[in-house]
Structures are given as structure tokens and as C-alpha cells.
Specification:
8-stranded parallel barrel; 7-stranded mixed barrel; alpha/beta
């Protein structure tokens, strides 16, 4: 009854729901029906093959009215089997009511389809579900990456404003628009505002050294040399079909193209060890040349490493290695370790350090963390890969005892998520960074993602900012990733439907699982789908879809069935990874099987031939 009273309080907003009046009304009808005890009714209807109350959320009143009419017809026919005149009138009346119900159902289905297309755009021919891919700086390091994604089936690209900067975002968007136009395949752009997410601070990058390792047996014998790509630094990335262990860029454009297959390059690695690279394949890449070389011994390569070819008249220089990236900094945490979180400057970089007590240290620039937690409360890092319990707090430090980190420990790096699921933390709806980024989003993107939605106040603040900027056509994607956002979703949807902006919901399963518990995630996902179905709001399914395939090139069995469930939603999102193009192609086949599968011949099972 508490939910019913809350709904009554919000019926006053209906006159201003403009584009979403029908959908908001249906959502309220669905929630009102959920307030009733209908278990016995469901069983009774099931016995006569009628209404399934679990599937009428998209058209509540029309479905109920049609079912009631069928029941009345059944009752009338059973009570008056010989009254033809009365029966004929009753049938005619029932037919008209059923015809009206059918037209209402058709209208509601069109409304849901219209809302989906308004936000996400039309689907490509033969497809019913969009595929979204998150991209970062890797999208501008390859000239063909975006084109490959669109060709594989991607129709929406996502940029996370928590990473990168406007220069990188602009270049990504330019490439998306050009590729979409060239291929004549629409591709919309979603940009997520970072929101008030708690993250670890930036750690100082490690040394700029690249390790090249051949594959070895357990005894240390080499079974396959490391595959290394060699090219000039302006040649771009290697061909996508190659399986490589390392990529090395050389600064010499004069001598490098003269290399041939079977040439051997010599160098001293970062330790002074003599090592060799044997050229085994040669490629013409755009206006340059690239090579695949093999390395049979472990080597550590750094910027400035000089390569040369040894000939009959001495050594000929090939050039020196450039642009070796710094290794990602991290600390390894094990169960029982102490971790100290300090207030830090968001613009600085923190040294990897261990205090005199043996505790590891990281920073967090958000004051919300230090103002909200108490001893004894749980805390999670990196989407729940590491868990701990808060042992002590002060204005500037939090002491955490690690309780879960995997059998060999787990690495915690820069800008990794921090979750405090049992702490009473109150974030501001939009941060100052969000407001700055919103200006860029409004000028370049089709949709804005609103992170960490908690209640109707967050939506009210967003609507005010959009109205200030006259952004009534900018799509809004509400990311449901907190306990409060899930529990208040019906009210959040009603508040969001007060504006005319195209609207959608993203199920951000990563933070949602950490905030609310892994064991509840499946039920919460179902509840969100039911509510959004009742509101005719498109749903985006996100987080770890085909994660193993994206990262390693090989999916798990569970991932395939999880991805197949994506047919129930309007859009499925993939994260970044080395094999993301292959993952998009695979997901496209899973979501749209009719376009690719061969129909099996159905042969009768002649049991009688075995029995006679």
C-alpha cells in the first residue's frame, strides 16, 4: 500500500507528460496491479488457458478488458446455450469490444516501437536489437577500427566522459560520422557523464618497458616464438587479422622499407642482453611497410633501443624504438593486507607506496567517501574484484582490511571504482565536470548517459539543465546502478517522462551487483525489464556481455546464453577489448539468428517401427 500511496501522489504530474502520457498511465496501472494479491487469480486463469499476468505489462488495461470480455462470453454461452438472439447480440458486442482491444494493443505496440526508434534510431535491415560498443583512445589509433565495428553490426557507439578529453572525443566522433556516411549505415553516439563515481586516484606510471615473451613449456623450452609487429611510427596499427604478442614502432623511414623476409635484426635489450628479431612476413600498410618478426628469447624493449642488421661489411642501422608505452601502475592486494585510502588531488599522480606499517596506499579525491563511511562497513574496489572491511576512519584517511582478493591476490590500479554499498552517502545529481561535459555532449552526441541515478531529485536537476540549454531533442539514458535508483525506478521513470526528451534505461550490471548483491542481480534485472516494458521505455543491457570473447577471443558457454537473453531488450552493449570486432559479429549472429541459421529438417520419429 505504500507504493500505491506514492503513485497517487504522482498522478498530479500526468497532465504535463505530453509525449509519454499513454506510457506513464500504463506504468501506473501496472504498478497498481502489482499492489494486489493476484496469485489465486493467475492460477484460475491458467487452468482455462487465458491471461498470463506476467506478460501484460506493456498493455495492462487493454489486456484485462479483453480477458474479462472472453470470460463474459464463456459465461453467457454456458448459461444460455439455446438463446440464439441474446447470444448473437452478445457475440456482436463482444466482437466489437475485442476489436477495440486489439486496436488498442496495436497502438501501444507502435508506441513502444516509436519510443525505441526515437532514442536509438532505426535498426538495420533484418535486425531487431541494436549493438552498442564502448570505445576510448584505441578508436583513433587505428584507421579502420570504427569502420570494422560498423561493418560487424554495431549501430551505437558509447564514449565515457570519465576517460579521455574533448580532443579525443572529437576525433572519435568525426571518424564515426565519416564511417557511418561512407558505409551508409546509421550509427548514433551516446556519451556518458562521469557522475559522482568514487574512484582510486591516478598512480604514477611505471617504466616504459615492453616485455616480449615466446611461448614456453612448463620446463622452459620454447614451443613458439613471440610474434612482433615492426613498422614506422606513422604507419598505423597492424592488420587486424594478425595474432601478435608485441607491437614495436621504429623512427627510421629510409632503411626500414628495405628489409626483406629472413633478415635478422639485432639489438641489446633493457638489461644489456643480446637479442634477435627474424623477419618472417612483409606487409604493405597504406603508404608504408610493416613486418612480422619472430623473437625466440625473452626480451625487454624500451624507447631508444637501437636495431641493426649485420652484413658482410659491418652493421647497418635500421633505426631506434620509439613510443613504448609506460606499464600500467598497480598494487597487488591479498587477503589480510591493509590498504590506506588518503584524500588526494584529482589532478596529481600518486607514487606507489607502502607505509611503515606495511600497508599499501592509494588516494581518492572525493570527499563523499571520507564523510560517509564508518568502521565495520564493507567496501569494494574495481567492480567487486576486491573486497574489504573498514577498520578505521579519520578526516583524511580510511584504513581497510582486505577480505577478498582471489587466491593469488588481485591488482588495484588507477581510476578503479570504489563502492560502499552499506554507507549512507548522498551525492549531488550532476557534478561541475558533468555540467562542463554536457556542453560538449549537446553539441556532438545523440544521447547523454546519466550515471548513478538515485531518485527524482537527480532527474529534476537534469531536466532544469537541459531546459536551460533548450535540449529537448537530446536523448536521455538513465543508468540504473545503485540500490536507491533501483528501488525508486518507477518514480524516476515518471519524473523523467515529464520532459519530451527521448528516454531509455541502461541496466549497469557491474555497479548494481556490487551495490545490491550478486545473488539479487538476476531478479533485479527482471524487475527493471518489467517496469520499463510497462512504461514503453527501451532498455540497454550492459556490463560483461561476452566479456571473455572480447578480452581473450574465446567465449564461455554461459556468456553465449546470457547474450541470447539480449533479444528481450532494445540494445546490448559490449565493453572495450582486443577482440571486440569479433565479439560484435558474434553478438549480431546470436541476437538475429534467423538471418544466419540453417533450418533443420524435421523428421518424424516413427516409434511404431520399433514396436512392431
Amino acid at each position: 500500500m505504500v507504493r500505491a500511496r506514492m503513485l497517487l501522489c504522482h498522478t498530479e504530474i500526468l497532465p504535463s507528460l505530453l509525449n509519454y502520457l499513454v506510457s506513464a498511465t500504463n506504468l501506473i496501472h501496472y504498478l497498481a496491479l502489482r499492489c494486489l494479491d493476484v496469485e489465486q487469480l493467475k492460477d484460475d486463469l491458467a487452468l482455462i488457458g487465458l491471461l498470463n499476468l506476467e506478460t501484460i505489462n506493456a498493455h495492462v488495461l487493454a489486456s484485462l478488458a479483453a480477458s474479462i470480455q472472453i470470460l463474459e462470453n464463456l459465461k453467457s454461452n454456458s448459461l444460455n446455450p439455446e438463446e440464439h438472439v441474446t447470444g448473437e447480440l452478445s457475440s456482436k458486442k463482444g466482437f466489437e469490444q475485442q476489436k477495440y482491444a486489439a486496436s488498442t494493443l496495436q497502438m501501444i505496440r507502435k508506441k513502444a516501437s516509436f519510443n525505441r526508434e526515437l532514442l536509438l534510431g532505426p535498426t538495420q535491415e533484418g535486425r531487431t536489437t541494436h549493438i552498442m560498443v564502448t570505445v576510448g583512445v584505441e578508436a583513433i589509433e587505428s584507421k579502420t577500427f570504427i569502420t570494422d565495428l560498423i561493418n560487424a553490426g554495431m549501430s551505437i557507439i558509447r564514449i565515457n566522459c570519465a576517460h579521455g578529453n574533448p580532443c579525443i572525443w572529437s576525433e572519435i566522433i568525426t571518424r564515426v560520422r565519416k564511417s557511418s556516411q561512407m558505409l551508409e549505415k546509421p550509427c548514433r553516439i551516446l556519451m556518458d557523464l562521469a557522475g559522482p563515481k568514487l574512484r582510486t586516484g591516478k598512480l604514477k606510471p611505471g617504466p616504459a618497458v615492453m616485455k616480449i615473451s615466446p611461448k614456453k613449456t612448463a620446463a622452459g623450452d620454447v614451443i613458439f616464438p613471440a610474434q612482433v609487429w615492426l613498422a614506422h611510427k606513422e604507419a598505423g596499427p597492424p592488420p587486424s587479422h594478425l595474432s601478435l604478442d608485441a607491437v614495436i614502432f621504429i623512427d627510421d623511414q629510409e632503411f626500414l622499407p628495405k628489409l626483406e623476409v629472413d633478415d635478422t635484426l639485432r639489438f641489446r635489450d633493457a638489461r644489456g642482453k643480446k637479442r634477435r628479431l627474424k623477419i618472417v612476413r612483409k606487409f604493405h600498410v597504406f603508404s608504408s611497410t610493416g613486418y612480422v618478426a619472430e623473437c625466440s628469447r625473452t626480451a625487454y624493449v624500451q624507447s631508444g633501443t637501437r636495431l641493426y642488421v649485420k652484413g658482410k661489411i659491418g652493421r647497418s642501422p635500421v633505426g631506434q624504438v620509439v613510443d613504448v608505452p609506460a606499464t600500467a601502475p598497480s598494487i597487488r592486494l591479498r587477503v589480510g593486507d591493509l590498504l590506506i585510502i588518503s584524500r588526494g588531488n584529482s589532478s596529481g599522480q600518486d607514487e606507489l607506496s607502502t607505509s611503515m606499517s606495511g600497508a599499501h596506499r592509494v588516494t581518492c579525491s572525493s570527499g563523499y567517501l571520507f564523510d560517509s563511511v564508518k568502521p565495520g562497513e564493507p567496501i569494494a574496489f574495481d567492480d567487486g574484484k576486491i573486497w574489504g572491511v573498514i577498520r578505521g576512519t579519520s578526516m583524511s584517511e580510511i584504513v581497510v582490511s582486505i577480505t577478498h582478493a582471489g587466491p593469488k591476490g588481485a591488482k588495484l590500479g588507477s581510476e578503479k571504482s570504489i563502492n560502499i554499498p552499506e554507507s549512507n552517502v548522498r551525492f549531488e545529481g550532476l557534478t561541475s565536470k558533468d555540467l562542463m561535459d554536457l556542453e560538449f555532449v549537446a553539441a556532438h552526441a545523440d544521447m547523454v548517459g546519466v550515471s548513478f541515478v538515485r531518485d527524482t531529485r537527480d532527474i529534476a536537476v537534469l531536466r532544469q539543465e537541459l531546459e536551460k540549454r533548450k535540449l529537448q531533442n537530446l536523448g536521455i539514458v538513465l543508468k540504473i546502478e545503485t540500490r536507491s535508483g533501483f528501488e525508486k525506478l518507477s518514480l524516476v521513470l515518471l519524473e523523467a517522462m515529464r520532459s519530451s526528451n527521448p528516454l531509455g534505461v541502461m541496466i549497469a550490471r557491474g555497479d548494481l551487483a556490487v551495490e545490491c548483491g550478486w545473488e539479487r542481480l538476476a531478479d533485479m534485472q527482471e524487475e527493471i525489464l518489467y517496469l520499463c516494458g510497462a512504461a514503453h521505455i527501451p532498455v540497454i543491457w550492459a556490463t560483461q556481455v561476452l566479456e571473455s570473447l572480447v578480452k581473450s577471443g574465446l567465449p564461455t558457454r554461459a556468456e553465449i546464453t546470457d547474450a541470447a537473453n539480449g533479444r528481450r531488450v532494445s540494445c546490448v552493449m559490449l565493453n572495450k577489448g582486443k577482440h571486440v570486432v569479433e565479439a560484435v559479429s558474434t553478438l549480431d549472429k546470436i541476437l538475429h539468428p534467423k538471418a544466419t541459421r540453417m533450418r533443420a529438417d524435421l523428421k518424424p520419429i516413427l516409434l511404431c517401427s520399433h514396436l512392431l
